[in-house]
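Support reply, case 0932

Customer input (verbatim):
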Amino acid sequence: MRDVSFDVATGELVALLGPNGAGKSTTLRMLTTLLPPTSGSVRIAGFDAAREPGRVREVIGYVGQKNASGENHRIRDEFITQGRCYGLRLRDARRRADEVLEILGISDLAARTPGTLSGGQRRRVDIAVGLIHNPRVLFLDEPSTGLDPHSRADLWEQIQLLRRAYGITIVLTTHYLDEADRMAERIVVVDQGQVIANGTADALKADLAGDWMHITTSDTDAARPAAGLAGQMAETSEVTTEGQTVSVRIADADASLPTYLRLLDHHSITVTRVSVRRPSLDDVFVNLTGRRLEESAEAYETTTDAPIGATHV
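Our regenerated output:
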């Protein structure tokens, strides 16, 4: 990790996005007091993670990649035990266990053991364990990894329900681009131990990728001058040709396309087909790193004494 710095506002959902080995889980372990940063500072809900780790642990919930509950304990009993570990009286722990079961829609699982559950059910149980003490900030490390599409969608519905019910702040790691794009209010892109981008999905796509306009001309001879005209437009960042088709990457296709078509018509270039493609987070990642997120890359070695910059949640 090298100078990882970002802030998270109260009630915000922020996704740490990056490939395996990028440093996402290491960052989360530092934020949750499981690893000590050797420099910089981490403040969670106003508490210094290095000087007041106990206070930080009182206000956070942490759900790691591995299952959090014991294999042979009934779900409700496990929740009650977790509540007692956080200092709740037995009566309050029982009440809170029932509340969390209801909130996450798993009341029917209360008497079952984790080994009898599906992957999606187990993940909801894991999240419930992190919520027993009613934390102000919830950290989720790859919450939907390994789940089928239906279970992933169901899990995200429950996560959004938590936000509406409690106004809870959520920081999560993921390598699923579609999840980050649809669900996160802000995205922090981490690669090789560094923050390389920080912003909303729309802002990152607009600033770092741009729209694509694809124009098909009447023949290959017309494509060459059409490409030259595209390159003269102020907002154009890239122009490629393939056969009769000219592809233009530009900041705002909606605003630029009418101008480009008028320019082509003025030069008597016939257009037979037009399409526009909005950028994806994958386009952003390619632009930032030169590779796609799912591509295998050399593993980045991280250590427990890695430095971190000022981080506030």
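We compared this against your earlier run and they match. Two observations from our side: The chain has two domains: 6-204+290-312, 210-278. Residues 296-307 have pLDDT under 50 and may be disordered. Please reopen the case if you see a mismatch on your end.
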